[in-house]
Amino acid sequence: QVQLVESGGGLVRPGGSLRLSCAASGFAFSSYAMSWVRQAPGKESEWISSINSGGDRRRYADSVNGRFTISRDNAKNTVYLEINNLKPEDTAVYFCAKNVNNGYYSLYETPRGQGTQVTVSS
Question: 96: how many CB neighbours lie within 10 A of its CB?
Fold first, then answer.
């Protein structure tokens, strides 16, 4: 079955950086677009970014555009999210999700992993 394991979160100061990873298994990773979403305490889940199956098309939410970079390594079945210039409002649990097809505008499925906590605080 589909398994997604996120890692790389932590406690960072405002302005800091993190690189999140999501290791995927149980499906043909290189055939699907992937997404990152996040959920802050007391808030609804927020889509952040998607990347197509080949890794050459990306899109971002306005709230993170210019600070976040999504990438993937199909040889390692892993998708990444590099986060720069972190702000307190970026504090959330970050999840990766498998999309329904290979397109970066496709819908993402309900995240299946435990997520990784990112806390931005001085």
Answer: 30
Tokens matching residue 62: 């306005």
Pair of tokens at residue 29: 């990773």
Angstrom distance (rounded) from CA 14 to CA 114: 24
Tens digit of pLDDT per residue, the chain (122 long)? 999 999 999 999 999 999 999 999 999 999 999 999 999 989 999 999 999 999 999 999 998 888 999 999 999 999 999 999 999 999 999 999 999 989 888 899 988 889 999 999 99
Residue 47 and residue 103: Cα distance in Å, rounded? Answer: 15
Give me the pLDDT at residue 103, please.
87
**119 phi, psi to nearest 5 deg:** -125, 125
Rounded CA separation 30/64 (Å)? 25
Strand order in the sheet with 18-25: 3-7, 18-25, 78-83, 68-73
**What residues does 71 pair with on adjacent strands?**
80
Nearest partner of 119 among 46, 18, 5, judged by Cα: 18
**Dist CA 36 CA 8 (whole Å):** 13
